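Question (not urgent): is this output format expected?
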Amino acid sequence: MRTFTRLLCMTVLVVAVGVVQAHAKADFSGTWKIDSSKSDFGPMPPPDSVTEKITHQDPDLKANVASTGGAMGDMTYDVNYTTDGKECTNTFAGNEFKSTVKWEGEELVIDTKGKFNDSEFTSKDRWSLSSDGKTLTMARHVSSAMGEADMKMVFVKQ
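Got this back:
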């Protein structure tokens, strides 16, 4: 009986650990390079390259983004977020953007609002990782006075 009780306790523990691991949030940390062949930039001209170096220790999320070509030309910038739903402020090209970041299931959702060249906009990003953790997909919906657009950026972990 004692052996059975121990076996039952071990089984419950193993199942509990598996359930906790199955519900663990994604870790987006790593160096990610754009796969332009799998990405869709909507009405924007595609960049020649994009590399995102992401450090993610929930709730802190930081990214250094470097891109060449495309609509904005060559640029490098940093963004800092928290995934707890609190508003974060970042500056890009002299413009201030305010974002809230939260988890929706296994996706990280980033809602941003701001002004760019005197035009107000909102964007909603949905970040998701492939099951093997080697592909990061960022689906983006942007709204502004000029209209709405959808984009999908697919990154491969380096």
